[in-house]
């Protein structure tokens, strides 16, 4: 669950993509480290769009599930 939404993610600085993303990739998730409300996540294609803010525990659970392959399009979280 998200804690809240930031309507215009472009107002924040310091977004980063995974080191596994290609430098020219334009369809990635970007995250912001060290935000006081949690982990903001945005779509790199729409940097002026919204960012969803997740708790550190929820974001860690998502990353762990992505790494171990337990996520699929047909299986909800």
Q: What do these coordinates show?
A:
Residues 14-67 form the DUF397 domain. InterPro entries: DUF397 (IPR007278). This is DUF397 domain-containing protein. Pfam families: DUF397. It comes from Streptomyces osmaniensis. The chain is an alpha+beta fold. It has one domain. 17% of the residues lie in helices and 26% in strands. It contains 1 helix and 5 strands; from the N terminus they run βββββα. Strands 1-5-4-3-2 form a 5-stranded antiparallel sheet. β3 (29-32) and β4 (39-43) form a beta hairpin. The chain is globular. The protein starts with a strand and ends in a 9-residue tail after the last helix. The mean pLDDT is 86.
Secondary-structure map:
Elements: E1 2-6, E2 15-16, E3 29-32, E4 39-43, E5 51-54, H1 56-68
Antiparallel strand pairs: 1-5, 2-3, 3-4, 4-5
Compact overview of the structure:
By secondary structure, the chain is an alpha+beta fold.
Summarize this structure as a short list of keywords or feature phrases.
single chain; alpha+beta; 5 strands; globular
Helix content class: 10-25%
| Main sheet properties | 5 strands, antiparallel
Broad shape: globular
Unreliable residue runs: none
Strand content: 25-35%
In total, the number of domains comes to 1
Q: Strands across the major sheet, in which order?
A: 1-5-4-3-2
Strand tally is 5
- Return Rg in Å: 13 Å
Number of helices: 1
Ends apart, CA distance between termini: 10 Å
- What is the element string, with H for helices and E for strands? EEEEEH
pLDDT averaged residue by residue: 86
Structural class: alpha+beta
Domain DUF397: 14-67
InterPro entries: DUF397
Pfam family, one: DUF397
Protein name: DUF397 domain-containing protein
């Amino acid at each position: 669950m998200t804690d809240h939404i930031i309507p215009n993610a472009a107002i924040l600085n310091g977004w980063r993509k995974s080191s596994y993303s290609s430098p020219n990739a334009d369809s990635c998730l970007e995250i912001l480290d060290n935000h006081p409300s949690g982990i903001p996540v945005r779509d790199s294609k729409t940097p002026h769009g919204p960012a969803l803010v997740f708790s550190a525990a929820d974001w860690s659970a998502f990353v762990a599930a992505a790494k171990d392959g337990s996520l699929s399009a047909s299986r909800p979280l």
